[in-house]
What we know:
This is dihydrolipoyl dehydrogenase. By secondary structure, the chain is of the alpha/beta class. The protein is built from 14 helices and 26 strands. Strands 4, 5, 6, 7, 8, 9, 20 and 21 form an 8-stranded mixed β-sheet that branches. A 5-stranded parallel β-sheet has the order 11-18-12-13-14.
Amino acid sequence: xxxxxxxxxxxxxxxxxxxxxxxxxxxxxxxxxxxxxxxxxxxxxxxxxxxxxxxxxxxxxxxxxxxxxxxxxxxxxxxxxxxxxxxxxxxxxxxxxxxxxxxxxxxxxxxxxxxxxxxxxxxxxxxxxxxxxxxxxxxxxxxxxxxxxxxxxxxxxxxxxxxxxxxxxxxxxxxxxxxxxxxxxxxxxxxxxxxxxxxxxxxxxxxxxxxxxxxxxxxxxxxxxxxxxxxxxxxxxxxxxxxxxxxxxxxxxxxxxxxxxxxxxxxxxxxxxxxxxxxxxxxxxxxxxxxxxxxxxxxxxxxxxxxxxxxxxxxxxxxxxxxxxxxxxxxxxxxxxxxxxxxxxxxxxxxxxxxxxxxxxxxxxxxxxxxxxxxxxxxxxxxxxxxxxxxxxxxxxxxxxxxxxxxxxxxxxxxxxxxxxxxxxxxxxxxxxxxxxxxxxxxxxxxxxxxxxxxxxxxxxxxxxxxxxxxxxxxxxxxxxxxxxxxxxxxxxxxxxxxxxxxxxxxxxxxxxxxxxxxxxxxxxxxxxxxxxxxxxxxxxxxxxxxxxxxxxxxxxxxxxxx
Length: 563
């Protein structure tokens, strides 16, 4: 490829130049080229505070619809199998980096998150939050408000979730089309090194090549043995999001993120809920202190009961006037424990990777419990423990962290690597959230995990806590129930984990997660300023409550600015 780039700068009178008059590392500042109507034949003019910048570019050589030339020996620079959130994030970043990119989707753009997961579930949870508030007479009275009995239209609620999924799906599709990403319809699989085939059932396959390939096929609901799903009375989250019914009594198998969020929805809409949890306590994946508080607020006051330490060994759908039958056995001894008769059962036991039929045998890749093995750079590892050249796997299919935004971050990391910049994603800095009312969020290690790590590596752990009851904004909203907790090293100020339960916890966690990602220490971030009165002061007070040893180093030199 040959290209020319011409720049002209003219200083604006009476304005100081902020840096050297010689331009270096000119970037588009993250703005995508289509926002400027960019094409290789156009001249662009940017007006900054100190300069007027004109950019014209022309290129010659091979290339495709996204304006990026590729090697003559390949059809594309990058092919992505799977157009979920992970594949979409990788595709957009690839085009920004100048790669000719194609994405293959056998179902519909958006994958699980947009169509059967985080997007429609947030629509249902938005409804449940409003219903819960309107039904709380004491809460309303505290504001001086009087509200008549709140009701809902089930189909209207379901339509809200469906319409949101459609809107986001169209947004994702249009964003890729606008950038020139080739969207190829059909089921994709790997034929061999740098070679992929795709096509629809009953039609001939198409074979294409790429310098690099990313597998981003996501996951499907995991259904344990002995459970018969009929999609009506025994359902997975895929079915539940359609909200075809609101049963009087529903059993939810599993008390993780999915189970908790659906318990919030169903109880707000009038259902009674029974949790069935295999471990000895509810919410086993959360920090124990947060779980205890969350159970007191999210479980105990609501129409929810639970069985812990048991498996649902057999679940039979309702039929011929008989209810759903659930047989429970002791999780340790496997002895029969109880039999439940309920109106419906939701299976929320997690998700399984969707990796069958991808042609992995063609490149000698053996899955581990269905997951595709990768290294810390998302490079696929074959059955002999060797890296498969130019092949990557991101998102739920590799099992590192089954979150949509983690998949997107992994995809962006891979694109950085294939375009010449080494990048390793810090998974401990990726936040997670459960959108109950109130919300739960977390990043990094739980307290038991941190103490185990400290014992092995020989350092001390300290805990800082703040309450939402001390936050003006939370009290103004009459939402003082909540706790923020930080686990850290007092010797150097490193943040090991942050856990929040309270109003808008899912939004508050990001200051902590970004600090962890950037390596910012507590002794530096506690000097940051937060607007008052805002919920962000919960996190501000958390940092200020930490006691870091005076000898701990800072992460960056202090800068004095005279104004």
